[in-house]
Amino acid sequence: MGFALAPTALAAGYRLEAHESVGSTNVLALERAAAGDAGRLWIVSKKQESGRGRRGRVWATPEGNLAATLLLVEDFDLKLAATLGFVAGLALADALDAVVPGQRIAIATDGGNAGRGARNDRFELKWPNDVLSGGAKLAGILLESSLLSANRVALAIGIGVNVVAHPQDVPYPATSLKALGYAGGAETLFVALSDAWSDSMSAWREAGGLAEIRRRWLSRAAGLGSEVSVRVDGNIVRGVFETIDEDCRFVIRTGEGRVAIAAGDVHFGAVASVAAV
Fold it and tell me: Are residues 51 and 130 in the same domain?
């Protein structure tokens, strides 16, 4: 089975470029934009040789995993465009629900122990850009942009999913769909993703759509209401994860009051490591 777009994605004008192996789907997407591509282009592969995550960290995509990037070229306000990472997280979680029905997911701490005794029939979203299963990282999202002209921006929305394998030498719990009992391939997941993206993007584009995206995201938020530690520029901020605000910043309540964080590394629990996560 090869990669294909869902009928809803085709009807919405999305296109597909599939590869057996790539260096980086994000890099390819921005190259296409620089060469004049109009956007609404999915670039996908089951193997990525030089992918990366946030802050330049390595994101390995061995054979059989999913590396996908959606290229959008529009007159974007960059602050608003940054919230498309939350749209991508929602779309991916919905797609995972579709291909792994009934999967039991536990809220868990970074150490891998279930928190608060709660169980959920869903995948969870960790701010700002991870998808978790049982507290373990299953997928990551990376947005990169390039200014094409005074009013045109190319946005590459990269999505990496551990379908058949997950990294072993990382300082955080990780898992794969195969480890969860999923027997399908990256191609099946991508069809569901392209379908779910069309739905979430339509919601985002509507008047007041960001409020709806925020509501949906919070309904899947990992660690909501629990103690968290956030590493921000080498400093640790501790408190209770209260919400994400209207700009999708991470809001925690500390002993001194509420703090809204625009960028940082989140750990569940009261103790955070200063190591990268």
Answer: yes
